[in-house]
Predict the structure of Radical SAM protein.
Amino acid sequence: MHSIDFHKNPFIVIWELTRACELHCLHCRAEAQYHRHPLELDFEEGKQLIDSICEMDHPMLVFTGGDPLMRPDVYDIASYAIQKGLRVSMTPSATPNVTKEAIQKAKDVGLSRWAFSLDGPTAAIHDHFRGTSGSFDLTMDAITYLHELELPLQINTVVSRYNYDVLEEMAKLVESLNCVMWSVFFLVPTGRGKVSDMISSSEHEKVFQWLDRLSQQVPFDIKTTAAQHYRRVVITNKMRKNKEKNQQIEYQDALNSGETDVFDGLGRAPKGVNDGNGFVFVSHVGDVYPSGLLPIKAGNVRTESLADIYRYSPIFKELRNPDLFKGKCGVCEFRHVCGGSRSRAYALTGDYLESEPACAYIPKSMRKKAR
């Protein structure tokens, strides 16, 4: 993989195909509804969007919702994108729509990965979080179908008050399900998500340290979302271990190490993606946001090029400049490899340039000043 200039092109594009969904999740960013919106991007508009995505050096494309399977043309859209050379994955809801036939169609058109959400190791925890009885059992059945059809599985989990105490059991379940990646989301209080559902900054830190240890013991990859400060933890731990081996590594080395990513072990460019920085979200009606968790509209693909919005929107340009960050994030030595969750900063302070509210770290410059 060649190096990506996040000022020009995103690493990943998320397209919310629809907001329709049969579930009623407690944390739902989209506040999904049971019926499709009449102003959704139609198939022809979707093809135009895919063409514009390809012009941004073929980033990864993820179909989300709502539930993408609520759109009858989802496989036609996927097929068009894949034929244009995009890597496409999908995050459908675990509903009766997820049949073995539906998964076979996904495999036939060439989807690279299928992601399911599991937010607890038991039906009681997961179903409560997803707001729908039977969701856990449907998910497990669908995972069986995936394995039978040999389609790679990704498990998504939102860390919150509902499952913080059972993450060890959750990891064991994920390993038993033979997935290729565990994508661990950290709750941002937007949509139906509440501040009271978030874990504390010190609890974030504990989970990060645990995930770093776990990543060295399990056969699947671990990726975090809305947890940019996990990179600081991983890099710091790598620096400490290398120092013990008399191999001095500074955080600047991690920043400048290209795409080899030998320091943070996350499988991506060391500086990572953040809201509007390597990451862009397109809503069901074509509105463009830095991410689905940062609800500040920067344009609409019906009237502007997605590439132009991503590259030139003042919002996106600000988000890609860590020197504009405020508070701790603005003076943190890790701001170029971390940057904190801009969406969580916005959700809790109303300012997407403010400090990450769920970070316990005190930057070196602040510690020196205190002394």
User: Anything to note?
Assistant: The chain has 14 helices and ten strands. The CA atoms of residues 260 and 269 lie 7 Å apart. The domain at 12-321 is CATH 3.20.20.70 (TIM Barrel).
